[in-house]
Design goal:
Helices cover about 50% and strands about 15% of the residues. The chain is an alpha+beta fold.
Protein backbone atom coordinates (compact mmCIF):
# COMPACT_ATOMS: atom_id res chain seq x y z
CA UNK A 1 0.00 0.00 0.00
CA UNK A 2 1.44 3.33 -1.03
CA UNK A 3 1.78 6.19 1.41
CA UNK A 4 0.05 9.51 1.01
CA UNK A 5 3.39 11.18 0.24
CA UNK A 6 3.96 8.72 -2.58
CA UNK A 7 0.47 9.41 -3.96
CA UNK A 8 1.17 13.14 -3.89
CA UNK A 9 4.54 12.63 -5.63
CA UNK A 10 2.93 10.46 -8.35
CA UNK A 11 0.26 13.10 -8.81
CA UNK A 12 2.86 15.79 -9.40
CA UNK A 13 4.68 13.45 -11.79
CA UNK A 14 1.56 13.55 -13.99
CA UNK A 15 1.91 17.32 -14.40
CA UNK A 16 3.67 18.84 -17.35
CA UNK A 17 6.62 21.09 -16.66
CA UNK A 18 4.50 24.16 -17.32
CA UNK A 19 1.74 22.88 -15.01
CA UNK A 20 4.29 22.03 -12.31
CA UNK A 21 5.69 25.56 -12.58
CA UNK A 22 2.14 26.92 -12.15
CA UNK A 23 1.60 24.56 -9.22
CA UNK A 24 4.67 25.93 -7.39
CA UNK A 25 3.62 29.50 -8.18
CA UNK A 26 0.31 28.99 -6.34
CA UNK A 27 2.18 27.54 -3.33
CA UNK A 28 4.06 30.84 -3.01
CA UNK A 29 0.90 32.95 -3.05
CA UNK A 30 -0.72 34.22 0.14
CA UNK A 31 -4.19 33.22 -1.07
CA UNK A 32 -4.36 30.20 1.19
CA UNK A 33 -7.31 28.81 3.16
CA UNK A 34 -7.58 29.63 6.84
CA UNK A 35 -4.99 27.83 8.91
CA UNK A 36 -2.48 27.59 6.05
CA UNK A 37 0.29 29.92 4.88
CA UNK A 38 2.40 30.22 1.74
CA UNK A 39 5.67 28.34 1.35
CA UNK A 40 8.72 30.68 1.18
CA UNK A 41 9.95 31.45 -2.32
CA UNK A 42 13.59 30.48 -1.88
CA UNK A 43 13.19 26.72 -1.21
CA UNK A 44 10.58 26.39 -3.98
CA UNK A 45 12.70 27.95 -6.72
CA UNK A 46 14.91 24.91 -7.31
CA UNK A 47 12.62 22.23 -5.84
CA UNK A 48 11.73 19.24 -8.01
CA UNK A 49 8.52 17.24 -7.55
CA UNK A 50 9.80 15.17 -4.64
CA UNK A 51 11.26 18.24 -2.93
CA UNK A 52 7.94 20.05 -3.41
CA UNK A 53 6.05 17.19 -1.73
CA UNK A 54 8.52 17.25 1.18
CA UNK A 55 8.11 21.03 1.54
CA UNK A 56 4.31 20.71 1.59
CA UNK A 57 4.35 17.89 4.16
CA UNK A 58 6.82 19.80 6.36
CA UNK A 59 4.65 22.89 6.13
CA UNK A 60 1.12 21.40 6.33
CA UNK A 61 1.59 17.73 7.37
CA UNK A 62 0.39 14.93 5.06
CA UNK A 63 -3.35 15.61 5.16
CA UNK A 64 -2.83 19.34 4.94
CA UNK A 65 -0.57 18.81 1.92
CA UNK A 66 -3.37 16.72 0.39
CA UNK A 67 -5.89 19.56 0.85
CA UNK A 68 -3.55 22.17 -0.63
CA UNK A 69 -2.68 19.90 -3.57
CA UNK A 70 -6.37 19.40 -4.42
CA UNK A 71 -6.97 23.16 -4.14
CA UNK A 72 -4.07 24.04 -6.47
CA UNK A 73 -4.92 21.28 -8.98
CA UNK A 74 -8.38 22.80 -9.32
CA UNK A 75 -6.82 26.17 -10.09
CA UNK A 76 -4.64 24.74 -12.88
CA UNK A 77 -7.61 22.74 -14.30
CA UNK A 78 -6.34 19.21 -13.58
CA UNK A 79 -9.69 17.93 -12.36
CA UNK A 80 -8.79 14.37 -13.33
CA UNK A 81 -6.08 14.37 -10.70
CA UNK A 82 -8.39 16.16 -8.30
CA UNK A 83 -10.91 13.31 -8.60
CA UNK A 84 -8.26 10.71 -7.83
CA UNK A 85 -7.01 12.54 -4.76
CA UNK A 86 -10.55 13.29 -3.58
CA UNK A 87 -11.39 9.56 -3.75
CA UNK A 88 -8.23 8.90 -1.79
CA UNK A 89 -9.22 11.46 0.78
CA UNK A 90 -12.70 9.95 1.22
CA UNK A 91 -11.50 6.49 2.19
CA UNK A 92 -12.06 5.64 5.87
CA UNK A 93 -8.41 5.00 6.61
CA UNK A 94 -7.36 8.31 5.15
CA UNK A 95 -10.11 10.16 6.98
CA UNK A 96 -9.16 8.52 10.24
CA UNK A 97 -5.52 9.33 9.72
CA UNK A 98 -6.43 12.86 8.67
CA UNK A 99 -8.50 13.40 11.79
CA UNK A 100 -5.73 11.91 13.93
CA UNK A 101 -3.04 14.09 12.43
CA UNK A 102 -5.28 17.14 12.59
CA UNK A 103 -6.24 16.54 16.22
CA UNK A 104 -2.64 15.78 17.08
CA UNK A 105 -1.52 18.98 15.39
CA UNK A 106 -4.21 20.97 17.17
CA UNK A 107 -3.26 19.39 20.48
CA UNK A 108 0.38 20.23 19.83
CA UNK A 109 -0.51 23.82 19.06
CA UNK A 110 -2.78 24.00 22.08
CA UNK A 111 -0.05 22.56 24.29
CA UNK A 112 2.41 25.13 22.95
CA UNK A 113 -0.11 27.93 23.49
CA UNK A 114 -0.86 26.75 27.02
CA UNK A 115 2.85 26.56 27.78
CA UNK A 116 3.27 30.08 26.44
CA UNK A 117 0.27 31.30 28.46
CA UNK A 118 1.76 29.76 31.59
CA UNK A 119 5.11 31.44 30.91
CA UNK A 120 3.39 34.78 30.30
CA UNK A 121 1.49 34.52 33.56
CA UNK A 122 4.61 33.51 35.45
CA UNK A 123 6.35 36.56 34.02
CA UNK A 124 3.34 38.68 34.97
CA UNK A 125 3.54 37.35 38.54
CA UNK A 126 7.19 38.41 38.70
CA UNK A 127 6.27 41.80 37.22
CA UNK A 128 3.43 42.31 39.72
CA UNK A 129 5.66 41.24 42.61
CA UNK A 130 8.36 43.62 41.44
CA UNK A 131 5.84 46.46 41.11
CA UNK A 132 4.44 45.68 44.56
CA UNK A 133 7.93 45.66 46.04
CA UNK A 134 8.76 48.98 44.36
CA UNK A 135 5.46 50.38 45.63
CA UNK A 136 6.26 49.19 49.14
CA UNK A 137 9.74 50.74 49.04
CA UNK A 138 8.31 53.92 47.54
CA UNK A 139 5.65 54.07 50.27
CA UNK A 140 8.30 53.69 52.99
CA UNK A 141 10.36 56.43 51.40
CA UNK A 142 7.32 58.69 51.05
CA UNK A 143 6.50 58.15 54.73
CA UNK A 144 10.10 58.93 55.68
CA UNK A 145 10.09 62.03 53.46
CA UNK A 146 6.71 63.12 54.88
CA UNK A 147 7.95 62.67 58.43
CA UNK A 148 11.03 64.71 57.58
CA UNK A 149 8.94 67.45 55.98
CA UNK A 150 6.45 67.65 58.83
CA UNK A 151 9.22 67.49 61.42
CA UNK A 152 10.89 70.47 59.78
CA UNK A 153 7.58 72.32 59.65
CA UNK A 154 6.76 71.43 63.26
CA UNK A 155 10.16 72.62 64.41
CA UNK A 156 9.67 75.85 62.48
CA UNK A 157 6.29 76.39 64.17
CA UNK A 158 7.73 75.65 67.60
CA UNK A 159 10.64 78.05 67.01
CA UNK A 160 8.30 80.78 65.77
CA UNK A 161 5.94 80.25 68.70
CA UNK A 162 8.82 80.36 71.19
CA UNK A 163 10.12 83.57 69.60
CA UNK A 164 6.63 85.07 69.66
CA UNK A 165 6.16 84.19 73.33
CA UNK A 166 9.58 85.69 74.14
CA UNK A 167 8.62 88.89 72.30
CA UNK A 168 5.25 89.13 74.07
CA UNK A 169 6.81 88.44 77.45
CA UNK A 170 9.52 91.03 76.79
CA UNK A 171 6.84 93.58 75.93
CA UNK A 172 4.95 92.67 79.06
CA UNK A 173 8.11 93.03 81.15
CA UNK A 174 8.69 96.53 79.73
CA UNK A 175 5.07 97.45 80.48
CA UNK A 176 5.38 96.02 83.97
CA UNK A 177 8.62 97.90 84.57
CA UNK A 178 7.01 101.13 83.35
CA UNK A 179 3.99 100.56 85.62
CA UNK A 180 6.22 99.80 88.60
CA UNK A 181 8.17 103.01 87.93
CA UNK A 182 4.95 105.05 87.88
CA UNK A 183 3.75 103.37 91.06
CA UNK A 184 7.05 104.10 92.78
CA UNK A 185 6.79 107.76 91.78
CA UNK A 186 3.18 107.97 92.94
CA UNK A 187 3.96 106.32 96.25
CA UNK A 188 6.86 108.76 96.71
CA UNK A 189 4.55 111.70 96.03
CA UNK A 190 1.89 110.27 98.36
CA UNK A 191 4.53 109.95 101.05
CA UNK A 192 5.58 113.58 100.54
CA UNK A 193 1.97 114.76 100.49
CA UNK A 194 1.11 112.78 103.61
CA UNK A 195 4.09 114.26 105.38
CA UNK A 196 3.06 117.77 104.32
CA UNK A 197 -0.53 117.22 105.44
CA UNK A 198 0.66 116.12 108.87
CA UNK A 199 2.77 119.25 109.16
CA UNK A 200 -0.13 121.39 108.00
CA UNK A 201 -2.44 119.93 110.63
CA UNK A 202 -0.14 121.29 113.28
CA UNK A 203 -0.33 124.89 111.99
CA UNK A 204 -3.78 125.91 113.42
CA UNK A 205 -2.51 125.30 116.97
CA UNK A 206 0.05 128.07 116.58
CA UNK A 207 -1.39 131.23 118.15
CA UNK A 208 1.52 133.44 117.38
CA UNK A 209 0.77 135.06 114.02
CA UNK A 210 4.37 135.87 113.48
CA UNK A 211 5.33 132.20 113.91
CA UNK A 212 2.61 131.22 111.42
CA UNK A 213 3.88 133.43 108.63
CA UNK A 214 7.46 132.56 109.33
CA UNK A 215 6.69 128.83 108.87
CA UNK A 216 7.86 127.39 105.45
CA UNK A 217 4.55 125.59 105.05
CA UNK A 218 2.59 128.74 104.90
CA UNK A 219 4.48 129.89 101.82
CA UNK A 220 4.67 126.54 100.02
CA UNK A 221 1.76 124.35 101.09
CA UNK A 222 2.29 121.67 98.32
CA UNK A 223 5.46 119.76 97.60
CA UNK A 224 6.50 119.46 93.92
CA UNK A 225 4.37 116.83 92.08
CA UNK A 226 3.78 115.55 88.54
CA UNK A 227 0.60 116.15 86.58
CA UNK A 228 -0.71 112.62 86.34
CA UNK A 229 -3.82 113.45 84.30
CA UNK A 230 -2.40 112.25 81.01
CA UNK A 231 -0.07 109.66 82.44
CA UNK A 232 -1.10 106.01 82.03
CA UNK A 233 0.07 102.55 81.15
CA UNK A 234 -1.71 101.54 77.94
CA UNK A 235 -1.86 97.76 77.38
CA UNK A 236 0.69 96.78 74.71
CA UNK A 237 -0.58 95.55 71.33
CA UNK A 238 0.55 92.06 70.45
CA UNK A 239 -1.41 91.78 67.21
CA UNK A 240 1.39 93.24 65.16
CA UNK A 241 3.85 90.72 66.60
CA UNK A 242 1.48 87.81 65.97
CA UNK A 243 0.77 88.96 62.42
CA UNK A 244 4.45 89.54 61.71
CA UNK A 245 5.36 86.13 63.13
CA UNK A 246 2.67 84.37 61.12
CA UNK A 247 3.72 86.20 57.95
CA UNK A 248 7.34 85.28 58.55
CA UNK A 249 6.32 81.71 59.32
CA UNK A 250 4.37 81.51 56.07
CA UNK A 251 7.35 82.85 54.17
CA UNK A 252 9.64 80.34 55.84
CA UNK A 253 7.09 77.60 55.20
CA UNK A 254 6.96 78.54 51.54
CA UNK A 255 10.75 78.48 51.20
CA UNK A 256 11.10 75.27 53.18
CA UNK A 257 8.28 73.55 51.31
CA UNK A 258 9.70 74.64 47.97
CA UNK A 259 13.07 73.21 48.97
CA UNK A 260 11.64 69.96 50.33
CA UNK A 261 9.33 69.47 47.36
CA UNK A 262 12.23 70.12 44.99
CA UNK A 263 14.27 67.49 46.82
CA UNK A 264 11.36 65.05 46.65
CA UNK A 265 10.89 65.77 42.94
CA UNK A 266 14.57 65.12 42.24
CA UNK A 267 14.47 61.86 44.20
CA UNK A 268 11.35 60.84 42.26
CA UNK A 269 12.97 61.28 38.85
CA UNK A 270 16.28 59.72 39.96
CA UNK A 271 14.54 56.34 40.20
CA UNK A 272 14.42 56.35 36.38
CA UNK A 273 18.20 56.55 36.08
CA UNK A 274 19.68 54.80 33.03
CA UNK A 275 23.24 53.89 32.10
CA UNK A 276 24.44 56.27 29.37
CA UNK A 277 27.70 56.00 27.44
CA UNK A 278 29.01 58.22 24.65
CA UNK A 279 28.78 57.11 21.03
CA UNK A 280 32.18 57.66 19.41
CA UNK A 281 30.64 57.31 15.92
CA UNK A 282 28.71 60.56 16.49
CA UNK A 283 31.56 62.55 18.09
CA UNK A 284 33.07 65.56 16.34
CA UNK A 285 36.73 64.85 15.41
CA UNK A 286 37.94 67.51 17.90
CA UNK A 287 36.29 65.72 20.83
CA UNK A 288 38.31 63.40 23.08
CA UNK A 289 36.32 60.57 24.66
CA UNK A 290 37.45 58.44 27.59
CA UNK A 291 37.87 54.70 27.09
CA UNK A 292 34.79 53.95 29.22
CA UNK A 293 32.67 56.41 27.23
CA UNK A 294 31.78 58.46 30.31
CA UNK A 295 33.87 61.62 29.74
CA UNK A 296 34.32 64.05 26.86
CA UNK A 297 36.28 67.26 26.32
CA UNK A 298 37.40 69.33 23.36
CA UNK A 299 41.03 68.94 22.38
CA UNK A 300 43.41 71.79 21.57
CA UNK A 301 42.50 73.98 18.61
CA UNK A 302 43.96 72.54 15.44
CA UNK A 303 44.27 69.00 16.82
CA UNK A 304 41.85 67.26 14.51
CA UNK A 305 41.57 63.46 14.73
CA UNK A 306 41.58 61.58 11.46
CA UNK A 307 38.15 59.91 11.75
CA UNK A 308 35.84 58.65 8.99
CA UNK A 309 33.18 61.24 8.15
CA UNK A 310 30.20 59.02 8.87
CA UNK A 311 26.66 60.36 8.29
CA UNK A 312 25.94 60.20 12.02
CA UNK A 313 29.05 62.18 13.02
CA UNK A 314 28.64 65.86 14.01
CA UNK A 315 30.80 68.22 12.00
CA UNK A 316 31.69 71.04 12.50
CA UNK A 317 29.49 71.26 15.64
CA UNK A 318 31.38 70.11 18.78
CA UNK A 319 28.72 67.56 19.75
CA UNK A 320 28.35 63.90 20.66
CA UNK A 321 25.36 61.68 21.43
CA UNK A 322 24.81 58.85 23.86
CA UNK A 323 24.71 55.31 22.47
CA UNK A 324 21.42 54.54 24.17
CA UNK A 325 18.21 55.68 22.46
CA UNK A 326 14.75 55.82 24.01
CA UNK A 327 11.35 55.81 22.32
CA UNK A 328 9.06 55.27 25.31
CA UNK A 329 8.83 55.50 29.09
CA UNK A 330 10.92 57.75 31.34
CA UNK A 331 14.68 58.07 31.74
CA UNK A 332 17.16 60.18 33.71
CA UNK A 333 20.92 60.79 33.72
CA UNK A 334 23.36 63.14 35.45
CA UNK A 335 26.37 65.00 34.10
CA UNK A 336 29.13 66.72 36.08
CA UNK A 337 29.78 70.23 34.72
CA UNK A 338 31.98 71.55 37.53
CA UNK A 339 34.80 73.85 36.42
CA UNK A 340 33.42 74.49 32.92
CA UNK A 341 32.65 77.87 31.36
CA UNK A 342 30.56 76.54 28.47
CA UNK A 343 28.53 73.40 27.75
CA UNK A 344 25.27 72.09 26.22
CA UNK A 345 23.18 69.22 27.59
CA UNK A 346 19.84 67.60 26.90
CA UNK A 347 18.23 65.22 24.42
CA UNK A 348 17.73 65.29 20.64
CA UNK A 349 15.77 63.41 18.00
CA UNK A 350 17.58 60.67 16.12
CA UNK A 351 16.96 62.52 12.84
CA UNK A 352 18.63 65.83 13.80
CA UNK A 353 20.97 67.41 11.28
CA UNK A 354 24.58 66.43 12.00
CA UNK A 355 26.40 68.46 9.35
CA UNK A 356 26.82 72.19 8.85
CA UNK A 357 25.18 74.93 10.90
CA UNK A 358 22.88 73.76 13.71
CA UNK A 359 20.09 75.65 15.48
CA UNK A 360 19.46 73.98 18.86
CA UNK A 361 15.70 74.55 19.12
CA UNK A 362 12.79 72.22 19.90
CA UNK A 363 11.44 72.84 16.38
CA UNK A 364 14.64 71.28 15.07
CA UNK A 365 14.56 68.33 17.48
CA UNK A 366 16.75 69.81 20.25
CA UNK A 367 15.62 70.03 23.89
CA UNK A 368 18.78 71.39 25.52
CA UNK A 369 20.10 74.03 27.91
CA UNK A 370 23.52 75.64 27.76
CA UNK A 371 26.09 77.68 29.70
CA UNK A 372 27.98 80.52 28.03
CA UNK A 373 30.75 82.80 29.32
CA UNK A 374 30.79 81.07 32.68
CA UNK A 375 27.55 82.53 34.07
CA UNK A 376 24.89 82.86 31.35
CA UNK A 377 22.39 80.00 31.16
CA UNK A 378 19.98 79.67 28.25
CA UNK A 379 17.34 77.39 26.78
CA UNK A 380 16.53 77.97 23.10
CA UNK A 381 18.17 81.43 23.29
CA UNK A 382 15.98 82.37 26.29
CA UNK A 383 17.93 83.39 29.40
CA UNK A 384 17.42 81.28 32.53
CA UNK A 385 17.42 82.56 36.10
CA UNK A 386 19.93 80.27 37.79
CA UNK A 387 20.69 81.21 41.42
CA UNK A 388 23.81 79.12 41.92
CA UNK A 389 26.18 77.69 39.33
CA UNK A 390 25.40 73.95 39.15
CA UNK A 391 28.21 71.45 39.60
CA UNK A 392 26.10 68.56 38.38
CA UNK A 393 23.07 68.69 36.07
CA UNK A 394 20.31 66.08 35.94
CA UNK A 395 18.28 65.49 32.76
CA UNK A 396 14.85 63.80 32.96
CA UNK A 397 12.61 62.82 30.04
CA UNK A 398 9.00 61.63 30.22
CA UNK A 399 8.36 60.41 26.67
CA UNK A 400 4.62 59.74 27.01
CA UNK A 401 3.90 63.11 28.68
CA UNK A 402 6.27 64.99 26.33
CA UNK A 403 8.38 66.60 29.09
CA UNK A 404 12.11 67.35 29.46
CA UNK A 405 13.33 68.67 32.84
CA UNK A 406 16.73 69.88 34.03
CA UNK A 407 17.92 69.91 37.66
CA UNK A 408 20.76 71.30 39.76
CA UNK A 409 21.51 68.01 41.52
CA UNK A 410 23.49 69.32 44.50
CA UNK A 411 21.06 72.17 45.27
CA UNK A 412 18.03 69.98 44.37
CA UNK A 413 16.65 72.90 42.37
CA UNK A 414 14.71 72.88 39.13
CA UNK A 415 16.55 74.69 36.33
CA UNK A 416 14.20 74.46 33.34
CA UNK A 417 11.26 72.52 31.92
CA UNK A 418 10.26 71.90 28.28
CA UNK A 419 6.56 70.99 27.92
CA UNK A 420 4.42 69.83 24.99
CA UNK A 421 7.50 68.41 23.28
CA UNK A 422 6.97 66.79 19.88
CA UNK A 423 8.31 63.27 20.41
CA UNK A 424 7.67 61.00 17.42
CA UNK A 425 10.93 59.09 17.13
CA UNK A 426 13.82 57.79 19.22
CA UNK A 427 15.57 60.29 21.53
CA UNK A 428 19.28 60.30 22.39
CA UNK A 429 21.20 62.02 25.23
CA UNK A 430 23.10 65.04 23.87
CA UNK A 431 26.43 66.48 25.02
CA UNK A 432 28.64 69.37 23.96
CA UNK A 433 31.63 70.21 26.19
CA UNK A 434 32.24 73.50 24.36
CA UNK A 435 35.35 74.70 22.60
CA UNK A 436 38.69 74.58 24.41
CA UNK A 437 39.96 78.20 24.52
CA UNK A 438 43.67 78.09 25.33
CA UNK A 439 43.43 76.44 28.73
CA UNK A 440 39.92 77.53 29.67
CA UNK A 441 36.94 75.17 29.53
CA UNK A 442 39.27 72.17 29.25
CA UNK A 443 37.47 70.29 32.03
CA UNK A 444 35.51 67.31 30.65
CA UNK A 445 31.80 66.67 30.89
CA UNK A 446 31.45 63.54 33.02
CA UNK A 447 28.44 61.22 32.94
CA UNK A 448 28.07 60.44 36.65
CA UNK A 449 26.47 57.50 38.44
CA UNK A 450 23.14 58.49 40.00
CA UNK A 451 23.11 58.35 43.80
CA UNK A 452 19.56 57.09 44.30
CA UNK A 453 18.41 54.90 47.18
CA UNK A 454 14.80 53.96 47.86
Amino acid sequence: MTTLKEDLWKTLEDLTDAQFKQFKWFLKENDMPEGFSAIPVAPLESADRQDTVDLMVQKYNCLGALEITIRVLKKISRNDLVQHLSNLKNTDSVLLKYKYEREKSMLGKMETEIKLMIQERQMKILEVKHSAELSKKSAHKQIADSLRVFTVLQQAVERSLANLIDTIEEKQKKTQKLAEGFIQELEQEISELTKRRTEMEKLPSTKDHLDFFQSPLSLNAFPPTKNWTKVGVPPPSYKENVTSTVDQLQENFSKEMKKLLAEAELIRVQQFAVDVTLDSDTANPYLILSDDGKQVYCGDTGVHQNLPDKPERFNPAINVLGKQGFSSGRFYFEVQVKGKTAWDLGVVKQSVIRKGSISAKPDHGYWTICLRNGDKYKASAVSLNVTYQPKKVGVFVDYENCLVSFYDVDAAEHIHLFTDCSFNEKLFPFFSPGVHHGGTNSTPLIISPVNYTV
